């Protein structure tokens, strides 16, 4: 019988059993996934702090306000707006990682051709960039408060609100891709319940009326109206919080099971 001289038993050596040092790749992956899951909650909290506490934009300012009134309002609490802008920009940056976290858990539904996953990732990055524009324009107004002609301040104010409220198509595409992926998830148990998929579709539909802010300066379809902003905002952040909850629960369960 021939002997394999390269065998560890013949060569007099034994396979190494020394434990590896440092976190393993799966541990790092789970940590990254958990960070993405929590970023949705962080996005909502940071936005609420910046928008409501520091900028104090509740009730929403009216697009029918005069240029002089808008300028006076901005100048009266410009420091709060500046601080609020910082919170909002950070929060909207985390929106991108939240979308990545959801897409990672739903990529299995795409098989070998992950079209919906790519739609989610591309739209998520675009949405985060558009959202970040709004507080940047608010910040410019506060930075130049009292130095610009009132009509320039009013124009920046309009741009900021239009960036924040109106770009529904890319958000709706993201939501439709997520909802579609959730409903066709074949796993048992699933990461997200089926009703979360329908919530994505409902949120996409709720955002459509924001396109009508072009035509109204007062009433429910204006950017300070219940249809133009109130209902869409409720649906939008309910969607983020819902998917974040199930995402955190799923990744946490996997971590406990492996530990």
Written overview of the protein:
With 259 residues, the protein is mainly alpha-helical. The chain has one domain. 70% of the residues lie in helices and 0% in strands. The chain has helices spanning 8-11, 25-54, 67-76, 78-106, 115-143, 150-165, 168-183, 194-207, 226-258. Helix 4 runs antiparallel to helix 5 (115-143). The radius of gyration is 24 Å and the shape is elongated.
Based on secondary structure, the structural category is mainly alpha
Helix content: 55-70%
Q: What order do the SSEs take from the amino end to the carboxyl end, as H and E?
A: HHHHHHHHH
Rg, nearest Å: 24 Å
Describe this structure in a few short sentences:
With 259 residues, this protein is mainly α.
Features of the shown structure:
259 residues, mainly alpha, 9 helices, disordered N terminus
Describe the secondary-structure layout.
Blueprint: H1 8-11, H2 25-54, H3 67-76, H4 78-106, H5 115-143, H6 150-165, H7 168-183, H8 194-207, H9 226-258
Helix pairs in contact: 2-4, 2-9, 3-6, 4-5, 4-9, 5-6, 5-7, 7-8, 8-9
